[in-house]
Amino acid sequence: MQLNKYSVIKSLAIPLLLSLVVSTPSFAQNSSPSCVDTDGDGWGWTGTETCRVLPITCIDSDGDGWGWDGASTCRFTEIPTPQRPFSTQFCTDTDGDGWGWDGTDTCMIDQTVAGTCIDTDGDGWGWNGESSCFIDTQSGCIDTDGDGWGWNGYQTCRVSVDTTDQEPTNSCLINGASVNTDLSQPRCDALLDLYTSTDGNNWDNNDQWTTASDPCTWFGITCNNDEVIYVDLRNNGLTGSLPASINQLQGLSVLVLDENNLSGPLPDVSATSITFMDLGFNQLTGSIPASLGNLQLELLNLRHNQLTGPIPATFGSLSLVNILLLNDNQLSGSIPAELNNLLGDSRRLDLLGLQNNLLSGSLDGISNLQNHRPGIATLEGNLCFTATDPEFTSWLNEFVRDWDDGCF
Fold first, then answer.
1. Residue 333, SS3 per DSSP
2. Roughly how many angstroms between the first and final C-alpha of the chain, as a whole number?
3. Cα separations (Å) of 382 from 69, 331, 354?
4. Using CB atoms within 10 A as the burial measure, which of 61, 86, 243, 386 is most buried?
5. What structural domains and CATH numbers belong to the chain?
6. What gap in Å lies between CA 360 and CA 383, rounded to an integer?
7. Element (H or E) spanning 190, and its range?
8. Contact by Cβ (8 Å): 51, 45
């Protein structure tokens, strides 16, 4: 079964976005309540003069960064956090993203069954009332159209593979025992190395790992035929370093190891097929491998580690990236001008997190930032940034919070 990577990225990205607060500077309060902004540029007309829209009670119902304050269009200046109280009644969610409208305000859907993961689009991800969640295969899962997905009476589920007529084509040695699996021995060894190097015996959940069972059934592992395509061991008590042999997982598309205690350098993963890489909130050290820029990444989260050195110029080749989070590390040097390739109206980048590092230098090289939507970049908490172009400097002052705070 091939995962829909775009759905995976959208679903997994929700907690990342919800955990950030991206705000723009407050504007001069020189408008009246009757200030009407018809094109969403932050300026309006009172009937007699131009005015600035005041986003006091700005409600963004579709998550596009724009909302309505009761009188006019406004720029939504804060992304809701997961701690937002649940709506107690009449909260209607029309698009299945976990948020709805209760008649007066945006609200979070209060699921009727606590902890139930509800998947509305069959991509394997759902909403449990608090966060995105992964749908595990459930007993009684009925697939009526043969697409590998079914319904078990209360949620979408993945249909278990019937192995009675489809025997594994390979075998692996696991702790001296031969185990039937579609994976090759190097793939099995890479998973065993990950277990050993991150103290797997003390993981919070190591169900089936290193037992005489198909590695594709081990906790956090998803396979497609002879490839491991998904490793999700987030917040699972992993301690230690990532093994170099992870590069043997050539079909790996999604690597999620955030909120653990991983240390040491980032391994080379250039031989993999990773499109979604989340290693945030660990203790990784060393520089960021330039080879990451050669992958077809759509999300890269390395925030809240102890990474040092420059941002690789090769990141300018990440033409598919939606979210690039490098904040809260010890990265130094200037922001490479190659990142300008990721910026502009026609680009896919939605969030660029660079705050709280040791970065400095001119921002003129990434001037395409002003052609992107406001709020895309976070730069505060670095050393001194400068900009020489007056128009770009004016844009930074208006839309990028504390971009030059390190200069004072």
1. strand
2. 55
3. 34, 9, 8
4. 243
5. 25-76 (no CATH), 221-407 (3.80.10.10)
6. 5
7. helix 185-197
8. yes
CA distances for 399 relative to 22, 142, 230, 381, angstroms: 11, 51, 37, 16
* Contacts with 186 (C-beta within 8 Å, 6 or more apart), sequence order: 245, 248
Cα–Cα distance, 387 to 367 (Å, whole number): 9
Place of tokens 């033409």: 319
Is 74 within 8 Å of 67 (Cβ atoms)?
yes
H/E segment holding residue 300: strand 299-301
Separation CA 352–CA 243 (nearest Å): 28
| Residue indicated by tokens 């593979």 | 161
Lowest-confidence region among 226-230, 293-297, 374-378: 374-378
Residue 195: its pLDDT value, please?
97
Q: What is the pLDDT of residue 180?
A: 92
Rounded Cα–Cα distance for residues 27 and 254 (Å) = 41
Residues 238-257: pLDDT tens digits?
999 999 999 999 999 999 99
How do 177-181 and 170-174 pair as beta strands? Answer: antiparallel
Those residues whose C-beta lies under 8 Å from the C-beta of residue 112, and which sit 6 or more positions away, are none
pTM: 0.64
pLDDT score of 354: 95
Q: Which of 125, 145, 123, 141 is nearest to 133 (CA)?
A: 125
Which position has the higher pLDDT, 137 or 135?
135
**pLDDT per position as a tens digit, 193-213:** 999 999 999 999 999 999 989
